[in-house]
Target: ABC transporter permease
Amino acid sequence: MNFKTIILASATSLLLAGTAMAQTEVKIGVLNDRSGVYADLSGEGSVIAARMAVEDFDAAGKGITVEIVSADHQNKPDVASNIARQWYDQDGVDLIVDVPTSSAAFAVNEITREKNKIFMNSGAGSADLTGAQCSPNTVHWTYDTWALAKGTGTAMVEQGNDKWFFITADYAFGHALERDTMAIVEGSGGEVVGTVRHPFPGTDFSSYLLQAQASGAQVIGLANAGGDTVNTIKQASEFGITQAGQALAGLLIFITDIHALGLETAQGLVLTESFYWDLNDETRAWSERFAAQNDGKKPTMVHAGVYASVLHYLKAVESTGAKETEALMAAMKSTPTSDPLFGDGMIREDGRKIHDMHLFRVKSPAESTGPWDYYTLVATTPAADAFRPIEDGGCAFIAE
Model:
């Protein structure tokens, strides 16, 4: 081998070594409510969950450098839109996660498609994210209004509670939850005798509760969430509504809501969630680690969704070896999902993540063995039946 050949071989070796040592850099933005009515169910807990996913995946050991940033969208679509645009245009963010408040999520959904980035939603509920406003750049992970309506609405009607009145948050999520639950109730032979909408966020629900009380409905469906739901239930208790025989259906309730209410007030509520910290050994182990970083507070299903979605995204980054959006989305949709919190599942072509949904009943104080022991599992809806069929969603891009 002559000198020129040795030099060429050495240069090739150095080039290959440099390629092998190259790091894939990923920047993830956790965008949510960090100061308002949804701060407890998402907030800093979602940042903790994202970091745990990076650690558990051993991203650094696999040649993936991950930076996580966060911001407060204040539950305002314009704020969410401005942050998302700055993150994509100026700050190099590749993926946005969480984003509770459906109106804010729709804004991020639109900008993400425009910028050809990726949005994995855990916090917002409107099923329109994989329906009328679906996007090839968005994955809707944790729950949606159709799944909530099917779980809680069906159970209540089957128990003979078929006359409903809705108290609804007056924005995209509340409208979608009311619409989807109304369809389930009426499709099951029930009747909706009235609806009323309250400002978001709200504080005084007395006039709405009095209308519901006077309606003669058996069930008052609460198509709101977070602090709004907590305050509605507290004020309903003060008015003696449940004692008088009307049932409250919390159509979206998180474990943090039950913690705020206390079991004395919340006992007997029936609700639907996709995750509960005490479901099995794996959820318990992960939740203990999470709580140790979150002032002892157990995770909500939104936190669990952030963890699992980031984990699946990182698997796609590893398998593709790049950050090209189309390749990553294709990898995430073609690879079955698997994690310790939701088990096995899949992402449909319309972006809907498919997994089991669970119906729970809130324990009485006597049934609970201690803090955060709040739920009794009533039933599980298998993944195949838990979410709206893809052909019924009206997602335009899957037919393109």
Remarks:
- The chain has a mean pLDDT of 93.
- The longest strand covers residues 24-32.
